[in-house]
Amino acid sequence: MIRFSTDFCLILDPSVMPDKDPLKAAEAVLKAGVRFIQYRDKGGSRRSAFRTARGLVEAARRNKAVLTINDDVDLALAVDAHGVHLGLEDLPVSAARSLLGPGRIIGASVHTLEQARVAESEGADYLGVGPIFSSPTKQARPPLGCGILGDFRKAAHIPVIAIGGISAGNVLEVLKGGADGVACISAVLCAPDIGKAAGELLRTIRLVRPLENG
Predict the structure, then answer these.
(1) How do residues 127-157 score in pLDDT, each as one tens digit?
(2) Which of 81, 121, 131, 206 is 20 to 30 A from 9 in CA distance terms?
(3) Among positive and negative, which fits the CA dihedral 185, 188, 194, 196?
(4) Which amino acids are annotated catalytic?
(5) Which pTM value belongs to this model?
(6) Can you state the percent helix, strand and coil of the chain, rounding each to 5?
C-alpha cells in the first residue's frame, strides 16, 4: 500500500481556474509542501485529461507526492496514477479495488455513516466526508457541518478527510471537530497566488496535525 499524507489534499480542478495552467498550479502547490493532489476534470476531453494527468503524475513523483484521479479508474491506470477517488455515482469501491489491485489508493465520497461503513468494508483507504460547509463546487447535497465529523471518526477505522467550503478561516474548526485532514479546491485555486495560499493553509493545518498522518 502506498503511504500518503491525509492532512491536506488539494483537488486540482481546471474548471475552477480556467485561466491557469493545471501543471503550473500543481508545481506551485508541490513547492509549497502539498503532498497529496487529486486531479478532477469533469468538463475537458478525455485526451486532454490524459495529457494533463500524465504530466501531473510525473510532477508528483518528482516531488515524492501522491496523485490520484477523480472518478476515472481507466485514466488512473493509463497514466499509472497512485489511485482514484470515487463519488457515490461512480464505480463501487469493491469493483475499483478489483481493477486497481491492493497497492493503489482508493478514496470514497460519503455523506452518511452507513455509506462510510460500506466504503470501508469494500476496501476504501480514506473517506471524503462532506460537504461540511456550503461550497460552489459541492451544491448537490446540504452541508453537514462540523458537528458530524466526530461521529464519522468514531465509525471509521480509516482516515476521514473533510471537504466542502473549507478555507483558512474555518480549517481549525474542522480539524478540531474530528477530521484527520481536509480537501480544498476554491480556497487555493481561486487565490491570486496559488502556492502562497496552499502554503498558508498547510501551515495552519499542521498546527493541529503535525504530520501525524503521513
Answers:
(1) 999 999 987 665 567 899 999 999 999 999 9
(2) 121
(3) negative
(4) 40, 109, 138
(5) 0.94
(6) 40, 15, 40
